[in-house]
Amino acid sequence: MDPGPHDENSVAQDSVTGEEISSTTIPPFTANKDTKPPKLTELRSQSKQRPSAKESSTHSVPHALPALTTFTGRAGLGAYIHAPESFPGSRVIRYDENFVVTNDLYPKSSIHLLLLPRHPEKQFLHPYEALQETEFLSTIQEEVRKLKLLVAKELQRCFSKFSSKDQEREEAIENALEAGKELDEASLPPGRDWSKEVIAGIHSHPSMSHLHIHILSVDRHNQCMRHRKHYNSFNTPFLVGVEEFPMKKEDMRRRFKEKFLREDLVCWRCGRNFGNKFARLKEHLEEEFEEWKKE
Question: Whose CA is closest to 222, among 109, 113, 56, 103?
Fold first, then answer.
């Protein structure tokens, strides 16, 4: 059996820093009763600024309120699974009896969501084990498909004004309307397919105890991307795509997890190798982000 995601003997395999393994306290009030899909503007609300140490360790509440329930350390995601209705829409995007969807507290791309299954028998299993069951895997893959479309819509909302493909389509539509012509979808430029700019997967060594799936834009552009292992955890086989499950028993990623975090830093877009020079990679990613938006 694969080691549990909270195996303390495997700290070297963690893709996050100690400060990111933070406790979460359930607020003693209901701030998010609406379980409908969020306004798309909420998806990026957590990626605009890095959470303060105070926010990442606990949610501040008035002293007069009763004692709070805290999920400590690697169990921090349990708070969202246990009481998603208690968190604001900027943190918990939506939930139902099967899943909770949150903004990642430490996003590694311009949009970075977490899908948290609420299945009591699956929550603490390693993903390799949990996603071996065909029926459960199918529900995960379907939910991921929906979330990838949601993220794609938000990318389009945020960045289509920079995209040459989208601008070409918009100009064609405007020209047709000005000429009084009926819009013929078949003759219009297709525009940019933003769904191709979204990835989803699990870390081969999850740093948090509860089963969770990452859904994020491909840009790897965020100020929370601050370490070599941050980047490599989303740009090497350390990230296992949801579509790759169920995994074969002999898959090398089951045994050689930590080596991926130590690999050379390679640009996700152009393939340039930066060795172990993370600062230089970060400068390059800023440039690539601007070029990526223009596609």
Answer: 109
3-class DSSP state for residue 108?
coil
Q: What is the tally of helices (H) and strands (E) in the chain?
A: 8, 8
Task: Kindly compute the dihedral angle of the four CA atoms of residues 223, 227, 233, 236, in this order, to the nearest 10 degrees.
Answer: 110
Q: What is the CA radius of gyration of the chain?
A: 20
Widest Cα–Cα separation across the chain:
69
Angle at the Cα of 71 from the Cα atoms of 83 and 61, rounded to 5 degrees: 70
Which tokens belong to 80?
């969202």
Q: Tokens in use for 103?
A: 């903004």
Burial of 286 (0-12, 13-18, 19+ CB in 10 A): exposed
Per-residue pLDDT of the chain (295 residues; tens, 9 = 90+): 454 554 444 555 566 565 666 678 887 755 454 444 444 555 764 444 444 444 433 333 333 334 458 898 899 999 999 999 999 999 999 999 999 999 999 999 999 999 999 999 999 999 999 999 999 999 999 999 999 999 999 999 999 999 999 999 989 888 888 888 888 888 888 999 999 999 999 999 999 999 999 999 999 999 999 999 999 999 999 999 999 999 988 898 888 777 899 999 999 999 999 999 999 999 999 999 999 999 9
For residue 23, give the nearest of 68, 62, 66, 61 by alpha carbon: 68
How is residue 227 written in tokens?
A: 């370490």
Give the C-alpha separation, 219 to 217, whole Å. 6
Residue found by looking up tokens 């603490």 in the block: 124
Give the list of residues 6+ apart from residue 235 with CB closer than 8 angstroms, or none.
Answer: 220, 266, 268
Provide the residue count of the chain. 295
